[in-house]
Amino acid sequence: MYSRMSLPYRLEFCDASSLPASPEKLLTPSERSAYAAFPTEKRRRDWLAGRLAAKSAVRAWTTALPDSPIEVLNDASGRPYCRVPGMESAPDISISHCAQGGVGAASG
Questions:
Q1: pLDDT at 7
Q2: Among 85, 107, 86, which residue's Cα sits nearest to residue 95?
Q3: How many whole angstroms separate alpha carbon 42 and alpha carbon 50?
Q4: Can you tell me whether residue 102 is helix, strand or coil?
């Protein structure tokens, strides 16, 4: 049996068909470098959809810093994490993508 609960997480979807043609303004310098390094347009699109969904989930998770730049990076094992200037502890994030777009989750 499932019950509806108020959980401390946010889940967001970024539709691949609505990705910006020039996403550089939405990315930090290190994210722009990672984006540019992908050899194929498909891989760049998948990566971008996931990152934008994760950033949207983080924004929805916290309303305290709506205009702060959110940076999504990967640790040495490839696990995504985020940094938000002014936040002592950023939420945990998860990213997934498919041909239709990317999903990002934030929880704390």
A1: 63
A2: 107
A3: 12
A4: strand
Cα–Cα distance measured from residue 29 to residue 33, given in angstroms and rounded to the nearest whole number: 6
**Separation between Cα atoms, residue 12 and residue 91, nearest integer Å:** 14
Number of CB atoms found within 10 A of residue 48's CB: 23
Nearest to 107 by CA among 81, 85, 75: 81
- Determine how many CB atoms are found less than 10 A away from the CB of residue 90: 19
Other CB atoms within 10 A of residue 96 CB: 14
Q: Show the CA angle centred on residue 22, arms to residues 16 and 27, nearest 5°.
A: 85
Q: What's the CA gap between 15 and 8, in Å, rounded?
A: 24
pLDDT of residue 69: 85
Do the beta carbons of residue 50 and residue 94 sit within 8 Å? Answer: no
Residue 36 has phi, psi (to 5 degrees) of -70, -25
Residues (pLDDT < 70) of the chain are 1-7, 63-67
The residue to which tokens 């889940």 are assigned: 11
CA gap 50, 54 in Å, rounded: 6
